[in-house]
Write a structure and sequence with these properties.
By secondary structure, the protein is mainly alpha-helical. It has seven helices and no strands.
């Protein structure tokens, strides 16, 4: 078995013994593969003698630069955390001699709140004109004939030329029902 595969297998077994979730396990193993590939291709293939390469500050810095150029900040942070976890594992299992972990700067992941919603325009209010209210003409009836006010709704012909009295017989009760219904609907909605 290849040495990097052996490292992956040992690290995976360690994580399983710690009862990490399947998703966490998958992420750690994936992150370790990226780290081992980077070190093997940029420096030298990993062997028991060259494993200490991953603890060198310049390797950690170049790895961080590589991650930053190819990943979003949250992924960079997770992969650097996985690197620290793997180095801790190597120290615990004596694969590496205890040495200080190189200082790794993890990027700050900040989430900015969404921009505020635009404020609706404020309608300009002008006070009503002070016109005197004129009383109704006493010669006009006290009710309105809606049929005469809206002839286009009931018929297309003007009211004067209409012969049928069928429309007022239907329309008046219908308008009364609509009026009463809208009154009760408004009353119950505002209650």
């Amino acid at each position: 078995m290849d040495y990097t595969q052996d490292l992956l297998s040992q690290f995976r077994q360690q994580l399983i013994s710690q009862s990490v979730s399947p998703n966490t396990l998958k992420n750690y193993v994936s992150d370790l593969r990226v780290l081992l590939f980077f070190v093997s291709t940029q420096y030298q293939p990993l062997t028991p003698e060259s494993l200490s390469t991953i603890t060198q500050p310049e390797v950690a810095k170049k790895y961080e630069e590589y991650l930053t150029s190819t990943n979003p900040p949250a992924t960079v942070k997770r992969r650097l955390s996985s690197m620290r976890k793997f180095i801790d594992f190597c120290h615990q299992t004596n694969l590496l001699q205890p040495a200080p972990i190189p200082p790794i700067q993890t990027p700050d992941v900040t989430f900015s709140p969404p921009p505020p919603a635009p404020t609706p325009p404020t309608p300009s209010y002008s006070p009503p004109l002070s016109e005197p209210i004129r009383p109704l003409d006493s010669s006009t009836p006290n009710h309105f004939d809606l049929i005469k006010l809206m002839p286009e709704v009931v018929h297309t012909t003007p009211v004067k030329n209409r012969v049928s009295s069928f429309a007022p017989a239907i329309v008046y009760p219908l308008l009364l029902i609509i009026f009463i219904g809208s009154f009760f609907l408004t009353y119950f909605l505002l209650k």
